[in-house]
Amino acid sequence: MGLVVQKYGGSSVADAEGIKRVAKRIVEAKKNGHQVVVVVSAMGDTTDELIDLAEQVSPMPAGREFDMLLTAGERISMALLAMAIKNLGHEAQSFTGSQAGVITDSVHNKARIIDVTPGRIRTALDEGNIAIVAGFQGVSQDKKDITTLGRGGSDTTAVALAAALDAEVCEIYTDVDGVFTADPRVVKKAKKIDWISFEDMLELAASGSKVLLHRCVEYARRYNIPIHVRSSFSGLQGTWVSNEPTGDKVEQAIISGVAHDTSEAKITVVGVPDKPGEAAAIFRAVADAEINIDMIVQNVSAASTGLTDISFTLPKAEGRKAIDALEKAKGDIGFDSLRYDDQIGKISLVGAGMKTNPGVTADFFRALSDAGVNIELISTSEIRISVVTRADDVNEAVRAVHSAFGLDSDSDEAVVYGGTGR
């Protein structure tokens, strides 16, 4: 048997009983002949509680010390899990991200992995131990400071270790039974997907699906590491994410799923001179503030004024920073005003079959129209259609589109064991 990397999210190790349940599953994999490396998140809502505590002490905590604080949650999980495994008669060693050789850049709170040197992990495995690694963290290459990887960082840690250790599979354990055709908290009749391509999973993740984060899938595709998303609360087979179907031949569906995201805001730059270089100046100001943007729409300029409006979406948490950056650049750009709207939602239809099946776009917009949902922005790729609507319309829009494309399940409702769907 080969090496397996398993990752357990916060809901899976939320309390002592959860930790003991996870320990039994890990020991079972070891008994089946696998070498096992485990990546753990912080228990339950520990990270959120630490963030709240930091904000009570300081409204703007320093990045270095903030990372030092946040990484404590995973260290607690890894130590407790190692104890639980030893209590079952097996040897386990726990490692922080830096001890595991997770090397990152120096950007605090959202560092990126640039290398993994898992020498100590290999030694632990060669000695017959189970290796437990704290997710979500690493050490900067230049200053040797502790860093955190941002939201979903434990998933990325797991895939990066799987690639570095040449693992057979990276198993992501969560509180749902796999990847579904929609968020099971919104669509009770969502279907579990048996297999999905990296390409489709990347689009779903980028569009708001919370089971896997975009960076994790991107890393897995780059190093061709199959991901098995499954629940730590049941023994059911989950969803395989890979280049090719795993096991029995699975036909790729025309539509893989419907994703939604209510964490974005919209900024409209009003009265922009319609001449070369203006859009570049707007987006340079946003980029210099280290803000990623998503959808962009420019109106046709008014003939009488020669002015146009440019709208774009961005993470809601970055809204204030983006407005400040654009206001500072207003004199150079020459626009009239800014409009900010954080009561929006994005709905995305994803499927590689769109490339060869005419009518998908028409059916998508017909479903939204029949549901009485008004569209504010539209963006497409080869395998995705995304629209921005009012936040209040998102859930109804997701259910309408899901039903219109025949994605509703006839069997039991999807189960969210831990309550978060992650």
TrEMBL record:
Any single GO BP term: diaminopimelate biosynthetic process
Claim: Transcription is one of the keywords in the record: no
SUPFAM superfamilies reported in the protein's UniProt record: ACT-like, Carbamate kinase-like
Span of domain ACT: 267-343, 349-422
Listed EC numbers: 2.7.2.4
Entry GO CC: cytosol
UniProt keyword annotation of ATP-binding present: yes
Function: Catalyzes the phosphorylation of the beta-carboxyl group of aspartic acid with ATP to yield 4-phospho-L-aspartate, which is involved in the branched biosynthetic pathway leading to the biosynthesis of amino acids lysine, threonine, isoleucine and methionine.
Name this polypeptide is given: Aspartokinase
Species annotation: Streptomyces filamentosus (Streptomyces roseosporus)
